[in-house]
Specification:
alpha+beta; Protein Transport Mog1p, Chain A; 2 domains; nine-stranded antiparallel beta sheet; 11 helices
Amino acid sequence: MRSCVSSRLFNLIFASAALICLLCTPGFAANAAADSSPILPKQFAGWQMDGPPETGNNAASADPTDPALLSEYGFKDFEYATYKSDDGRTLKIRAARFADASGAFGAYTFYLRPEMVREGIGDQAASAGQRVLFYRGHILIDAVFSQTSVMSAAALRELAGALPRPSGNAGNLPPILAYMPHHGYQTNTEKYAEGPLGAESIGAPVPAGIIDFSSNPEVVLGEYSTPSGLATLMLIEYPTPAVAIEHLRRIDAAYHTAQSQPGVNAIENVGPFFAKRSGPIIAVAAGPISQSDAQTLIGAVNYEARVTWNENTYFDKKNNLANLLVNIILLCIIIGAISLVAGFAFGGFRMLMRRYFPGPVFGDANRQEFIALNIQETVIEVEGPSAPSGSSHKRSNIS
């Protein structure tokens, strides 16, 4: 009877501990939490939000002019809000959230204008008068002051620090950006495309049909000054070198077709055209430049193999299998510790009860209790005319 009660008590403690540990594990809490959060804070650096913000997840509401392009960059949702300061100034902020930092960077380069001035806000920023454009992680911010002050940039830096950050590899920029040369680069001319609409909007010298976005390439271009003129350098990174080799053949064939058959829509008529491959990257130099300057420009692009991720692998607490295994190990350790504590507590309680309240329920403190099987073996001699000589029978008695 006492053994049955102890077993039930232990099972109850074990089940309760398992339920508590499951509810407290980080993975369970992460799954229960909401995936999205408000983009803009209620206040920052002395600026107070004036009324509730306008929110939505429709790209056409975020930008009626280019909604399809925003969707191509991985647009998720937006917030519009107006802030007021104590001195009566106003600040209107348009915030757009993308699936990853690559999308926010691409949208930033799309809205960036060459006449803007670079600012040290967020990951990259530029300003023109009362307008400041910057991105931080996977969020793009377009801020317009009614009147700027010497502290306007500092206020936006505080805002950038308060923005939500992407998890896992969603915060990584495309690795292809590291291969753009720095010498001769014209400020604010860098553009990034993830699809055909982006390639068309940035004025890529190679048409989107020849780039072939079904192969999942990434495209970046910029303008460079050379001794013979202004050139456009375009980098196309494909998943593997073999895919890049095949597409370089297509680009060369399309260029030569356009040269021999005027009017054929192959390669845009941008003057001299030069291309080379380095690993999975195709470098294209176009514009009114000499062959030597073009070779120098594309020669600065040299691929180096790196181990990295430029797409979201969902390596976070919610989707990480290793994190689940860690939580299981922690759960086992916690359950084991609770079981040990419960065992010592139950055993100590029984010892105290036997010592101070001896009796039939808890037993006597001066007597040790143990379970024993008293097995005795008895040899019985069998006698009779039918029994073999010297035969015997063994019988075991259990008491």
